Amino acid sequence: MEDKILILKGIIEKAYRIEAGFENEAYFHGFIEVLDDEQKRVLLKLIMDSEKHKITLEKLAKILGFELSKPEEIKFSYDDKRIFNEIYELEITAKILYEQISERFADILGENVEIFKELAREEEMHAKLVEKYVDRTLRIV
């Protein structure tokens, strides 16, 4: 059981890295680069929700008895010139990660498993928000 707790800790740290690093950086760069007001509103919502998720993970880590270290600064570079393609992939990755945490660690998380289920639902909602822009919105080059 102790090993499983250490594994959970490591996975939560990776989820935190996604929220505090990759997503945060990708959304902010997207926000700066897109010109469309509607897309900026979507990206601002993602920025705000990512901050909320980061705080949620920090609080949950404390409940579980550990602290999350601040992730190293991430320089996000888009492999694809389409901003929302990369963001969509991040959202799906985070959704799957939160679903897997809630399924595989429910015995350790107890009632806190609902937090991860809610995070997964929110990431799915984010994916749906950006899906309409996938393959359409090019970066400013």
UniProtKB/TrEMBL annotation:
This is Rubrerythrin diiron-binding domain-containing protein. It comes from Archaeoglobus fulgidus. The lineage of its organism: Archaea, Methanobacteriati, Methanobacteriota, Archaeoglobi, Archaeoglobales.
